[in-house]
Amino acid sequence: MKWMKKDLEQFVEEKAYIDTLFIPVIPVATSSDDKVVSSGFQLELNELFSRIIEEQFKGRIVLAPSFYYMDEKVEGEKDRLNEWIDAFSRQPFNHVFLFSFDRSWRKVEGELNGELLWFPGLRNGDLQSTETQSFVKEQAKEIIEIIKDSWKS
Amino acid sequence: MSEPKKVSRRQFLNYTLTGLGGFMAAGMVAPMVRFAIDPVFKPSAAGEFVSVADVEELSNEPQRFEWEIEQVDAWYESKVQKTAWVYRSENDEIVALSPVCTHLGCTVDWAASEEYPNQFFCPCHAGRYTKDGVNVPGTPPTAPLPKYETKVEEGMLYLGEAIAR
């Protein structure tokens, strides 16, 4: 389910079946021109994955609006992210996934109120290229398996 | 200081003619290439038949095929990825099923559950469908998987609209 009126209307009716929240966690950079461009690419790549996951598991996952933050100060953002997650727990979500390419989250993984899905993304590239597409497809399969496994346990 | 390189009249003509020749050749070949691959890559609007696969590729085992269509709503024009599970049935009919679970819209997989190797399986709530797409009673889905309209032309399989059953 996307965070859109039509999908959420269905979510509200079918809550019993929809127990998983998927939050894209996306850094924004402004410190240099290169970083600006590359942060745009990271954002697109993250959204692409999130869309694939949402499509695969539409009937059980709600794709939350992305959590954005300035890339320089992850430390201070940890609490804000946790607050964000806690706010969603007013709805019956048993599983919360955080999806990010930002390595800094791994250091605080244990202190987050959700399961971090992290893997090194691509530094730069072209989303239309066949190389990127096959990378995305392969990695998406991995994520799909991780999510299925966590439902079983 | 090195002298600036001079281009002789002969070299100049050589460059110009090679360039021009290449350009003309490209002009002739490009439309032919386009013509050859066009039916496969041309995105088409919703509701139209789209060529999806070579009929030769199909077997008794459902296979996944993907293609893109252009979808227009009031604000956006966007490319949407479509998927179908396609196989040849026992009576040699081509069957193309939508992978969208009729329960809440997850994507179903063929033979994804070890216990039910000959059924479509939905990973979200363990919904199941037999090979012909009919939902198995007692699992969450309440309707069969939609079936795409199919037609075969010149060895290519074309799929149209997915029809709910």
Automatic annotation (TrEMBL), chain A:
The organism's place on the tree of life at top rank: Bacteria
InterPro entries: DUF2487
A Pfam family per the record: DUF2487
Descriptive protein name: DUF2487 domain-containing protein
Organism: Salimicrobium halophilum
Automatic annotation (TrEMBL), chain B:
Rieske domain residues: 86-159
GO terms assigned for molecular function: 2 iron, 2 sulfur cluster binding; metal ion binding; monooxygenase activity; oxidoreductase activity, acting on paired donors, with incorporation or reduction of molecular oxygen
GO cellular component: membrane
Gene3D superfamilies with a match to the protein in the record: Rieske [2Fe-2S] iron-sulphur domain
Any coiled-coil regions, as ranges: none
Cofactor: [2Fe-2S] cluster
Transmembrane regions listed in the UniProt entry: 12-33
Keyword Transmembrane: yes
Pfam families: Rieske (PF00355)
Signal peptide positions on this chain: none
Record keywords: 2Fe-2S, Disulfide bond, Electron transport, Iron, Iron-sulfur, Membrane, Metal-binding, Oxidoreductase, Transmembrane, Transmembrane helix, Transport
Keyword S-adenosyl-L-methionine: no
Subunit structure: The main subunits of the menaquinol:cytochrome c complex are a Rieske-type iron-sulfur protein (QcrA), a cytochrome b (QcrB) and a cytochrome c (QcrC).
Function according to Swiss-Prot or TrEMBL: Component of the menaquinol:cytochrome c reductase complex. The Rieske protein is a high potential 2Fe-2S protein.
UniProt record similarity statement: Belongs to the Rieske iron-sulfur protein family.
The protein, known as: Menaquinol:cytochrome c reductase iron-sulfur subunit
